[in-house]
Amino acid sequence: ELAQIGVTGLAVMGRNLARNFARHGHRVAIHNRTYAKTESLLAEAGSEGTFVPSRSMADFVASLERPRRVIIMVKAGPATDAVIEELIPLLETDDIVIDAGNAHFPDTIRREAQLKEHGLHFVGSGVSGGEEGALKGPSIMPGGSRKSYESLGPLLEDIAAKVDGEPCCTYVGPDGAGHFVKMVHNGIEYADMQLIAEAYDLIKQGTGASAAEIAEIFRTWNEGDLESFLIEITADVLAHTDAESGQAFVDLILDQAEQKGTGRWTVQNALDLGVPITGIAEATFARALSGSLPQREAARGKLAAHTQAWDVQDRDAFVEDVRQALYASKVVAYSQGFDQIAAASAEYGWDIDRGAMARIWRGGCIIRARFLNRITEAYEREADLPLLLADDYFADAVGSSLAAWRRVVAGAAQNGIPTPAFSSSLAYYDGVRAERLPAALIQAQRDFFGAHTYRRVDKPGSFHTEWSADRSETALDDDEA
Ligand code: 2AM
């Protein structure tokens, strides 16, 4: 009997995806460049379902029913291209190749076009949830042709996480849309993590609470609006003590955050599209700052602090302020991320349904959170919402947190606690709601030194002023400007 789906690349993610399909009663063809991994999967999980192993790529392809559905789960980059090259001559019209790795979306756009020339469908799919998600139900973000989803979608929906009976998987959009959305998901994840880290630092420095006490605070927060996987694991991390020394484990970890690159891609793309995703950018730069060792060395003990002793009068009230600041900043980070998805969707012709993205992030993935229900509802109220932050629900929620948010950011500044994500989110909030911005002055400066022209509030058209001469103003045709 032919297999319904195949997985090539049986490192932990591929292996767990294959097992997930098998556990759901699907016959799964399995293949790996070196056969030992295929054998070990059979030895350890062979009894979980029906696996159809092959030693060669040709046998693997031959073991699949048509249209073939082949998932590639190898290291992103040249390995993916190598496997694609190997597959192309073995496949037939309408077969579907799925890249479930963490590809950069421009690569996915290129590969989709390449496979289309051979009459093949290429599906770049984001998969989030780590190893455990892959096995027990990830959030899946498949792109590619809509037609490919007819045949592939039901299988992916079957193995995806479920929330309220709904699968955390839906068709995202053409070519690179799936990997793009996964990229922004990871960017939001950076912001979420940084915000949680800032909250921890504020409480630690502001109240002197121990890691174990802060773990309890996060556990309480996890029962409210902030309920999420990241808050939950943060509580677990903070409660963990070193077996040998009995110290809080977090205090024994080197304070230099690393990154694999999806945050950087998100920020690079936001700069290309001109979308201010300041929360994600600050979170990405905060990791970079933590790793800037020569600079930190040069600054330590040398740069003045001029702070007063942090004087928190009412610990519970302060912790509640931090909670509200975290919530408000988190809304900003998501609002910015969804703006980026909207801008990319327009730029690349993807027609992405943002409400559906929030829906499939509710389970399986790293940013899964109760909060995402509210985002889905906001886009259900208005699919083309220009600003998530300005949705009635979120405008009210953030509005009622505003006083706390300002106290926290002001306190942090006064006491020398770096809160780049909290502070920049508040600056964004005040910027985006401003009646009038100092951008008017920027325009005048640009016109002064570069004759870049400006527009006026009181009449249409473009203008240039002779700043270094008699300051007379010339009206220009719009095409001339
Ligand atoms: P391997 O077990 O033969 O090394 C993660 O590295 C996974 O990607 C592994 O299953 C690995 O196969 C596979 N992989 C890495 N580079 C590859 C390539 N160029 N061609 C095929 N598979 C590759």
At a glance:
This protein has helices at residues 12-23, 35-45, 57-62, 78-87, 105-116, 130-136, 146-159, 177-207, 211-221, 229-239, 262-273, 278-290, 293-299, 315-348, 354-360, 371-381, 392-414, 420-432, 439-450, and strands at residues 5-8, 28-31, 51-53, 69-72, 96-99, 121-128, 139-142, 162-163, 166-167, 454-455, 462-465, 473-476. The protein contains 19 helices and twelve strands.
For this entry, give a set of tags.
alpha/beta; single chain; seven-stranded mixed β-sheet; binds adenosine-2'-monophosphate
Give a description of the structure.
45% of the residues are buried. The strands form three sheets. Strands 3-2-1-4-5-6-7 form a seven-stranded mixed sheet, with helices on both faces. A three-stranded antiparallel sheet has the order 10-11-12. Strands 8-9 form a two-stranded antiparallel sheet. The protein is of the alpha/beta class. The protein has 19 helices and twelve strands. The mean pLDDT is 97. The protein is 53% helix and 9% strand. Strand 8 and strand 9 (166-167) form a beta hairpin. The longest helix is centred in the last third of the chain and has 34 residues, at 315-348. It has helices at 12-23, 35-45, 57-62, 78-87, 105-116, 130-136, 146-159, 177-207, 211-221, 229-239, 262-273, 278-290, 293-299, 315-348, 354-360, 371-381, 392-414, 420-432, 439-450; strands spanning 5-8, 28-31, 51-53, 69-72, 96-99, 121-128, 139-142, 162-163, 166-167, 454-455, 462-465, 473-476. The protein is globular. Adenosine-2'-monophosphate is lined by residues 9-11, 32-34, 37, 74-75, 79, 82-83.
